[in-house]
Amino acid sequence: MHERIITTGDLYEMFRVGALNLSANSEYVNSINVFPIPDGDTGTNMNATISGAVKAGQSAKDKPIGEFSQIIAKAAVMNARGNSGVILSQFIKGMSLSLAGKTEVDVKGFADAMNAGWEKSYEVVANPTEGTMLTVMREAGEKTAQKIEAGTTIGEYIFAYCNEARASLMRTPELLPVLKKAGVIDSGGAGFTYIAEGMMKAVNGEEVSSVSGEVAATASVDTSAFNADSELTFGYCTEFILQLQNAKVDTASFPLSTVTDYLDSVGGESVVAFKDDDIIKVHVHTFDPGKILSEIRKYGEFLTVKIENMNLQHSENIEYFEKKGDKPSTEHKKFATVVVASGEGVADAFSQMGVDEVVSGGQTMNTSTQDFLDAFDKVDADNIFVYPNNSNIVMAANLAAQSYDKAKVRVIPTKTIAEGYSAISMLDVENDDFDSSAENQKEVASFVTTIEVTYSVRDTTIDGFDVRKNDYICISGKKLVACSKSRVDAVKAALDNTADFSDKQLMTVFAGKDSDNSEIEEIKAYAESKNKYIEVCVLIGGQDVYSYIIGLE
Question: How many CA atoms lie less than 13 Å away from 339 in the CB half-sphere?
């Protein structure tokens, strides 16, 4: 690696080793969430985001650094999971904007890109909070840039950057009282610091050993559904990323409609396409992918191409829907609903309410931007309502909604399963004013009080409670509201601490994998003794992490 010049290969190595270093420490990052619950996923989300970028960068190392950075930025956005992952993807996006058009950069140019990264990250957060990974990004970038002199090497810069990042990370509890009370540093800031330290290792020629940081192997394909006597009846699912070429078109002004109009003219179905600078990503169902690829290549060159036989996919889908006693719908709809859920029982509950697509996701594995885009394509509707059902997934849902141009997507920012369940129950399917309907559902969700019941994974003091490891705890909103050695007693205390419980009329209990029938009956009886007007509805959710998710409305 050069002392004062960073090439594409250098930048790739920095991201690759940075991703490996994060992966090697992701379990620690997961463990330092503010609430001591077994759902830490910050490290997992950030790892999925940057690993996706590294995978895309493997085949682009011979391109100028500007083009390379655009490719990994797009991949980071598509793989972004959770708030931390989305913020990290925007950091990489900001870097790519700063590096656009460059073949290589000097130390100052790289520092400018790192600062452009945090500036872009701040833009995606509606109300940026200091004491988070945003602060670590900003302070490390600003303070280190001020130290650059004429002879500063990349090694000296990245060493200073890591020192500033660590120092900023250690200050996060002083800036964010909730961290100080919980006795932890910011988990997202820790994840970002591990990436920066990995970059420093790459500059120094060091390697990081981490199996989980590598890209997971592709799932095997069951070919038994299509043999030598089979007939292709469903065509091919075709996806590609096209790099527009200046030698072929005016990349800056090239209209996406040129591609989408052509796909429509040749009978392409389920077309999803978007343009980001001079990159176009397309998903289309067709019986002749070769014809489409030949035509589209008139405008540029392919970065990736994926073609899958949909007879195989259809066979898998039929098996799934037969198990559910249902059939897949191919009818184009005026509106559709997409819900994120974890737990077979929770997913079935939403399906029984008429939800069109249930996307697997939740606390331990947040839904990615690409997962949402795939779901939007499946439902095939003019208008789509989306229910993230987790505060850490709302940002990815919004990012996907902004990227999708085949339908008008409205994200109902539900932060819990209970909020989503209540909002959907009040969806007026006869109301053609979709904006009004979306606002009504947001209002319904806002009146739901959710109590999530789990156990502590460490000793801590938070919200006035001295919590010991393995204590049962109840969380409502962003506060710990009860703690006890007994799970039932913890739930009873949480109900006692719900100020307006006497005014509630419906209590929905989603029972998790480790729930207990006798406990459920005791909780039900206690709720009815405290509020004679309450109706208690118990659903077997089967979710992980939370023994009970209780919705009060």
Answer: 26
Q: What is the DSSP letter of 365?
A: S
Beta bridge partners of 201: none
Report the SS3 class of residue 383. Answer: strand
Lowest mean pLDDT among 113-127, 354-368, 504-518: 354-368
Taking only the tens place, the pLDDT of each residue in 362-410 is: 666 678 888 898 899 888 889 999 999 988 889 889 988 988 888 999 9
The rounded distance, in Å, linking the Cα atoms of 75 and 90 is 11
Strand partners, 536: 507
The strands making up 479-484's β-sheet, listed across from edge to edge, are 479-484, 472-476, 449-455, 548-552, 506-511, 535-540
Q: Is the pLDDT of residue 153 over 50?
A: yes
Who contacts 102 (Cβ-Cβ below 8 Å, separation ≥6)? 64, 65, 66, 109
- CATH level 3 topology of 236-310: Alpha-Beta Plaits (3.30.70)
Contacts of 352 (CB under 8 A, 6+ apart): none
Model confidence pLDDT, tens digit, residues 80-104: 888 888 899 999 999 999 999 999 9
Q: At what angle do helices 154-175 and 107-124 cross, to 10 degrees?
A: 30
Which tokens go with 431?
A: 């109301």
φ/ψ of 270, rounded to 5, equals 50, 45
Q: Taking the mean position of all CA atoms in its chain, how far away is CA 382?
A: 24
Rounded distance between C-alpha atoms, residue 537 and residue 518, angstroms: 15
List, as one string, the DSSP characters of 414-474. --SHHHHHHHHHT--TT---HHHHHHHHHHHHHT-EEEEEEE-SS-EEETTEEE-TT-EEE
CA 188, CA 42: separation in Å to the nearest integer?
6
Q: Is 218's pLDDT higher than 70? A: no
Taking a C-beta distance cutoff of 8 angstroms, is the pair 148, 4 a contact?
no
Give percent of the chain above pLDDT 90. Answer: 46
Strand order in the sheet with 408-411: 357-360, 333-341, 381-387, 408-411
Superfamily of domain 5-203 in the CATH hierarchy? DhaL domain (1.25.40.340)
Q: Would you state the structure tokens that stand for residue 270, as one six-digit string?
A: 């389920």
**Residue corresponding to tokens 């389920």:** 270
Measured between alpha carbons, how far is residue 406 from residues 100, 124, 283, 340, 402 in Å?
A: 28, 23, 11, 20, 11
Sign of CA dihedral 199, 49, 208, 41: positive
Closest CA to 199 of 254, 154, 265: 154
| Fold held by 449-552 | Hypothetical Protein Tm841; Chain: A;domain 3 (3.30.1180)
Class in CATH terms, 329-446: alpha beta
| Residue 501 DSSP symbol | G
Give yes or no on whether 329-446 and 449-552 have one common fold: no
- What does the domain layout of the chain look like in residue ranges? 5-203, 236-310, 329-446, 449-552
Could you tell me which residues come within 8 angstroms of residue 149 by beta carbon, excluding any fewer than 6 positions away? none
| Predicted local distance difference test score (pLDDT) of residue 219 | 37
Could you read off the pLDDT of 239-256 as tens digits, one per residue? 788 899 999 999 989 998
- What's the CA gap between 489 and 348, in Å, rounded? 29
Q: What mean pLDDT value characterizes the chain?
A: 85
